[in-house]
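My current task is to audit a protein record that another person submitted. I have pasted the whole thing underneath without changing anything:
***
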Amino acid sequence: MKSIMEFLRKHSLSGYFILVFGLVWLWEIPMYGFMPYWEGYVLFLVIVSPSMIGLIMAYITQGSWGLSSLIAKCVHWRIGMIWYLIALLVTPVLFFVTVFSMSQARTAFQMPNPSFIWTYLSALAFGFFGTSIVEELGWRGFALPRLQQKYGPLIGTLILGVLWAIWYIPSWFLTSRGVQGNNLIETGVPFIQYAGSVLGSAFIYTWLFNRSNGSLLLSILFHSSLNVTFSLFPSAFFPSLFQPDTFTHLFSKIGFLPVAILVIIFTKGRLGYEYYQENIV
C-alpha cells in the first residue's frame, strides 16, 4: 500500500488516468451485463468517478490544501461577463446553426410555449448542480492543469480530449446510450463522429478554463448548457424533426471541431494559457 501511495504522489497524472480507466472500467464493464435495471445507477457512478478520483488524488498529492483548492475553483466567480455569455451561448448557437443547415429544418421550426423558458432555466440550474459539477472536478479540475504544465495547452488538451472520448467507449458499445448499429462499422463510425465533437469541445473547455484564471465555474456552466441544449431544444423547437432523445445524434454532428480550430488560430495555439499562468488562483 505504501509503494502505491508513493507512486501516486510521484506520478500524479499517470496515476489519475490509471485509476480512472483501470479501476473504473474494472467494475463498469461487467456491470453493463445487468442492464437495463442497473443502468441509471451505473452511469451515474461512471460520471462521478473521474471527479471522485480527482478529489482523492488532490488529497494524496497535496493534502488538505490540494483538496480545498480544487473545490474552491468551483466558486471562483470574478470573471468578465463576456465569458459567462460565451459559456452559456456557444452550444445553443451551434445547435441552431447545425439544425438550420438541414433542408427540412425551416418548415419544422416552431416556437415553444413561453413556459419553456422556465423549463430551460430549471434544467440549466439542475444540470449545474448535477452531473456537470461532478464531472468537471476531475477532467478539468485535476487533470487539465497538470497536462498543460507538462505538455503545454495545445498538446495537453489534445491528450485530455482523446482520453476523454475513449472514456466513453464502454457506455457507447455496451449500452443503448450510443448509436447502435448492426455491425462494428455501423456502430464505430458514429462513435468516431461523437469522439470528434468531444475532442473539439475539449479545446473550448480549456480556453474558458484558462481565460477565467483556472475557474471551474465556466466549465461547469458550459457543460450544463451543452447537456440542456441537446436534451431540450430538439423536441422543443423542431418537434416533427426529432425524437425527444436525440442528444447523441446531434452532438456528433455539431461544429465543435471547427469552432475549436478557430479558437486555436485566434489564440495562436495558447488557448489563453498565459492568463492562467499570470493569474492562477
